[in-house]
Write a structure and sequence with these properties.
Blueprint: E1 2-6, E2 9-18, H1 33-37, E3 56-63, E4 68-71, H2 94-100, E5 110-112, E6 125-128, E7 131-134, E8 140-144, H3 145-155, H4 177-194, E9 198-201, E10 206-208, E11 211-215, E12 224-230, E13 233-237, H5 246-249, H6 261-275, E14 281-283, E15 292-298, E16 301-306
Parallel strand pairs: 4-5, 5-8, 8-9, 13-14
Antiparallel strand pairs: 1-2, 2-3, 3-4, 6-7, 10-11, 11-12, 12-13, 14-15, 15-16
């Protein structure tokens, strides 16, 4: 467990699991082994010597002076994930790692999701016998309304602009986005709705002082990152609008999982241009190794520099 500070906000990374090297090869089409090896600063945290991009599945707990907020709840245990079979049926010690960081499920006040893909909402619920129940019984599961309604439409069979090509990356995957979305809702979202714990909010909503949603569309229609502000310092939990650090070196390279690749590239490029050289601490939702750092100019492009600040005290 690693922690950082943004003013008086403590941010702790809770790892679910690293992604197997090679498993996401091709997700960013331009990121061939030769292209990856040409970005020397990616090694060793974000790429290996074979030129494969490295990824991680993890959540962040954001502790403000008044509230504890979980951002992006990973895949979860025992979930049915035919879109990415290797991420289904897991049995990881995520909750034990959460406890080691100093948090019990009852301590969490808000659960946020940058978007409602399967690897961002899984720990919303746990299997209790043969039923799913909310993992965080005292939390408000707070989602951006547009994102929720879009995925609710997919569940109901509305035509998908979401990518189907995403599925062909994974051996044995079922590319039926409607079926997968129905499963995600049934296992990870609907139990929280039924428990009366879900709040739908407008774009750019402030969840609690110092923590607000920030629209970063393109990966999904309603994708939002999470901005942290305290004592003049700023942080941002990316979600998937920056899927991998190679997109910092090449912001025009979009993921096959993006709903709108052109918009994703536009959002990413505008963000990097705006924050390069600033003190904003960027927390990569799928960045392996040292997942927090700052954006700096690197010739005509940008570079991710891992944070050198010491871990936050408990």
């Amino acid at each position: 467990m690693t922690s950082w500070r943004v003013g008086d906000i403590k941010v702790s990374q809770i790892v679910e699991m690293p992604v197997e090297p090679g498993e996401l090869d091709g997700l960013i089409e331009e990121a061939t082994p030769e292209a990856v090896r040409s970005v020397e600063w990616l090694y060793p945290d974000y790429a290996n010597e074979a030129g494969q991009t490295l990824w991680s599945l993890h959540a962040y707990v954001v502790e403000t002076p008044t509230h504890r907020v979980l951002v992006d709840a990973c895949c979860g245990n025992h979930k049915n994930l035919p879109l990415i079979p290797n991420w289904g049926g897991l049995d990881t010690p995520f909750l034990e790692r959460l406890a080691a960081a100093g948090y019990q499920p009852e301590d969490i006040d808000f659960v946020l999701a940058t978007h409602l893909h399967l690897d961002h909402v899984g720990w919303n619920t746990v299997l209790d016998g043969d039923k799913w129940r909310p993992t965080f019984p005292n939390a408000r599961y707070t989602y951006v309304r547009d994102e929720f309604e879009y995925h609710s439409g997919l569940r109901e069979g509305v035509a998908a602009t979401d990518d189907l090509a995403h599925a062909v990356v994974y051996q044995g995957a079922n590319p039926d986005i409607h079926s997968q979305t129905r499963l995600v809702f049934a296992e990870s979202i609907q139990p929280c709705v039924d428990a009366g714990l879900v709040d739908l909010v407008d774009a750019n909503h402030e969840v609690t002082p110092g923590v607000r949603y920030t629209a970063t569309p393109g990966h999904t229609t309603g994708h939002h990152s999470v901005t942290l502000e305290s004592q003049g310092q700023v942080g941002l939990v990316t979600g998937d609008f920056i899927h991998h650090p190679i997109q910092i070196a090449h912001p025009a390279w979009s993921s096959r999982g993006d709903t709108d690749r052109a918009l994703s590239a536009e959002t990413r490029t505008g963000f990097l241009r705006a924050v390069a050289g600033s003190d904003m601490l960027v927390f990569g939702t799928h960045f392996s190794g040292r997942s927090a750092g700052r954006i700096v100019l690197d010739g005509d492009a940008y570079r991710f520099v891992p944070a050198v600040t010491p871990p936050a005290e408990s």
